[in-house]
Amino acid sequence: MKIKRVWEMPNSKTFMINCIKKLILKYIKEKDIVIDPFANESSIKIFLPKCQYISNDLDGDFKTDYNMEAQEFMKLIKNETANVVLYDPPYSGRQVSECYKRLGKTVNMEDTNSGYWTKFKKQISRITKPNGVVISFGWNSNGIGKKYGFEIIEILLVAHGGGHYDTICVVEKKIQTRLQCG
Prior knowledge:
The protein contains five helices and seven strands; from the N terminus they run E-H-E-E-H-E-H-H-H-E-E-E. The chain is of the alpha/beta class and 182 residues long. It has a single domain (2-174), classed as Rossmann fold (3-Layer(aba) Sandwich).
């Protein structure tokens, strides 16, 4: 596993941070199917003209392919479709709550507890092709995990200085198609 730490200015648009954009582009090949369930303004799309980039964001102000709850969006994706999944969800329950409230949506305990992220891991495992790659972004290095058939191949720690949390980027490869029990 490769681990690297760099410093770059923070940006709420994760994929516009230069080292993160380079990391993403390193793992996407021409004609790949890329799934982005939390696409924001889809800023990475302009760098992927020869890929099938399928984007979603709950916020209808963003010009994504879909504007749905991410769970519902991922249910539309067939099994083992994605070569690459970009998983850049809200990083904490507080961020989920703030996003929902900003959009006038109701927030409940299910939306802010750890089960919220577990549902995404199951869906991501289902939609990712064998040997496909998931790049996760957040404040921890958990990624999708061995339980869901993935192994970590690279971690990029992006320090932002001051009181900013690091952005932790975890690149994982799908090594098995059947989920482990337990």
